[in-house]
Amino acid sequence: MNTASTPLRPVYRVGLAAWAALVVLQLIWHAWLVPPERMPLTLVLAITVLPLLLPLTALRNARRALLWVGVLSLFYFSHGIAEAWSSPAERWLGLVEITLTVLLIGALGAGVTRKRG
Q: Could you confirm whether the keyword Cell inner membrane appears in this record (predicted)?
């Protein structure tokens, strides 16, 4: 359990960085690079960014917060695959999204330790 006195493992720092980058990517992607044409921007940002901010409530325990984000990132992985496959103009954004989600889930998996016994 991570508390204020326990140092954060480097692998979790990578996961937290990937999480932050995923939030920034969603903001840049949907608010600046490819703004929505048929939906209000606030609705698109609520759908894409808000779920990534919910695990902040568990940030006191970085491992738990990353677990929540890891589960949520499966949606973003699927979205990245769909965009990379179907939208040539946004393919690079989809590939960045895929990379960040794989990095995040990989960091979470790499941080798992087995109990000896």
A: no
Q: Measuring CA to CA, which residue among 78, 110, 81, 113 is closest to residue 14?
A: 110
| Torsion-angle region of 112 (φ positive above 0: left; ψ -120 to 50: alpha; else: beta) | beta
pLDDT, tens digit, 9 for 90 and up, residues 55-69: 999 988 888 999 999
How far CA 6 is from CA of 59, 61, 63, 67, in Å, comes to 14, 10, 12, 18
Q: Which two tokens stand for residue 31?
A: 């608010």
* Residue 113 banded pLDDT, cuts 50, 70, 90: confident
Question: What integer is the mean pLDDT of 71-100?
Answer: 97
Give the number of other CB atoms < 10 A from CB of residue 29.
Answer: 19
Q: Tell me how many helices (H) and strands (E) the chain has.
A: 5, 0
Q: Is-contact 22 107, C-beta < 8 A?
A: no
Q: Residue 116: is its pLDDT beyond 90?
A: no
Domain boundaries, the chain: 10-110
